[in-house]
Amino acid sequence: MLWERLSVTGLESGLSGIGVCDVDPFDDVRLTLEDRKASGLAGGLTFTYNDPVRSTDITRSFPWARRLVVAAHPYVPDSGSPSPPKHGTGRVARFATADHYVPLRNALGRLATLLTDEGYRAETLVDDNRLVDRAAAVRAGVAWWGKSTMVLAPGVGPWILLGSVVTDAELPETEPMVRDCGTCDACIPACPTGALISPGVLDARRCLAHLLQAAGSIPIELREAVGDRVYGCDECLDACPPGQRLIQETGEGGGRIDLLEALELSDAALLERFDHFYIPRRRPGYLRRNLLVALGNSGGGEAEVTMAGGLLANPDPIVRSHAAWALGRLGGQAARNHLDGATRSEQDAEVVREIESALAQCEGSPAEAGH
Predict the structure, then answer these.
(1) Could you tell me if 342 and 314 are in contact, meaning their C-beta atoms sit under 8 angstroms apart?
(2) Thinking of the domain 2-77+97-167, which architecture would CATH place it in?
(3) What number of CA atoms fall less than 13 Å from residue 250's CA on the CB side?
(4) What residue spans define the domains of the chain?
(5) 127 part of the active site
(6) What is the mean pLDDT of residues 302-313?
(7) Alpha carbon of 256 to those of 94, 112, 173, 357: distances in Å?
(8) Is 221 exposed, middle or buried (0-12, 13-18, 19+ CB in 10 A)?
(9) Is the model's pLDDT at 363 over the cut of 90?
């Protein structure tokens, strides 16, 4: 039986779950997306929010579709866990310590090949804005909705990446899980900015994982909360009890980078090193922005101040404004000297405001030589 062969192949390929659902529109999810956009809670989120009608109806993109073969692949413990905070280093969320989508893509490719070998059409979808993959996973019985807005799967909790194969093969559908989070709401108070405003409702305007991937400036009132994060945020996932077993099996060593080393890279080298990150318009300034906020929050000495001071001359105003903020956080006479110098040449109004704010912050910091 084709479905049995697909299931066995998927599990042998490392999938933690596999299921099949119909291609009827996810009307409830469409309404939620539209409501979040209208209320402002979606913030600047794009992806499936760009076109909720299309992303919740796979037949808009694939009129021939009859089924979705939905798969989940765990990225923990392979991701490792960040070692304890260390001066001068930044943190990367577990999903981004490497391109953990590779084994998922490979597994889905094997499933698609099985289907095409049998004469059916098959297209793989991974991290694709044509499908709200969480909704498909829930309908196919691969996972259930968590109060964090993530989906959770037995044995692995939220530590999964999702993908699907669209096919015209009318495979038997699998049943959704009769499961939810019950009375557990551990993820909600775990959010460092209160972005989870109620079970299943996220204010993306306060979500650090979103802000670190978004265009524009990081809101100044949230930069301290960013802490040493450079990309992603695992707080609500770390707090989730169903994922604790995998966390306990995960050794330290992944997800921590040297901030000064990264900031010293050329634009091309920076993009190459972190080529699996989503960076808006592949503009390296957005990644430097994140690194500078982490640098300012990490505390430092002469090397950190010198680095941030040098970036006040970067051609990207986003970089200059966040370099100014970092200097204000680092404080000391050397930081004030860099900021004073920048006031004489800076022309961008927003950067000027950041410099003035940073100077005011410096006034309240110790005037330590070389700091």
Answers:
(1) no
(2) 3-Layer(aba) Sandwich (3.40)
(3) 23
(4) 2-77+97-167
(5) yes
(6) 96
(7) 10, 36, 42, 30
(8) exposed
(9) no
